[in-house]
Design goal:
The chain is an alpha+beta fold. The chain has a single domain, classed as 2-Layer Sandwich (HIT family, subunit A), CATH 3.30.428. It has a 5-stranded antiparallel beta sheet. Strand 1 and strand 2 form a beta hairpin. Helix 2 packs across helix 3.
């Protein structure tokens, strides 16, 4: 069966690459360096819905995303969370946070208006992320 991405995730993010069993997407909210890790398996809502091997794949990919965000942005804190209260499809947020960001120290959800990337800034961001993810895959 073909993988079906939740329409809200598709609307609010853009495809970066595929790593292991997961699709990596960049949030369109340019206020925060924000990646989503989405296992390409239909019907998942919780991490424990995955087999042990799939959980290991997700953990390795999550570590790779974290290393990528740290190397590119040197955040003060990295928030990693799988909430899914509104979008039930399993997706794990990786958000680089800074003491000067708009939502600090609270959560990024529901704080202010999202700022969208320009086409040029989005293309540059995607290029940087793909290169950094490729570089971190060697050491991950």
């Amino acid at each position: 069966m073909l993988f079906k991405l939740d329409e809200r995730l598709e609307k609010d993010s853009v495809f970066v690459c595929k790593i292991g069993i997961s699709q990596i997407r960049l949030s369109k909210d340019a206020r925060y360096p924000w990646l989503l890790l989405i296992p390409e398996i239909n019907g998942l809502s919780e991490l424990d819905d995955l087999s042990w091997q799939q959980q290991l794949d997700i953990m390795q990919t999550s570590n790779q995303l974290s290393a990528c965000l740290k190397s590119l942005y040197a955040p003060h804190k990295l928030n990693v969370a799988a909430l899914g209260n509104i979008v039930k499809q399993l997706h794990i947020h990786h958000v680089a946070r800074f003491e000067y960001d708009e939502a600090w120290p609270g959560p990024v959800w529901g704080k202010g208006e999202a700022l969208r990337y320009s086409n040029e800034a989005l293309a540059e961001q995607l290029q940087q992320l793909r290169k950094a993810l490729d570089d971190t895959s060697v050491s991950a």
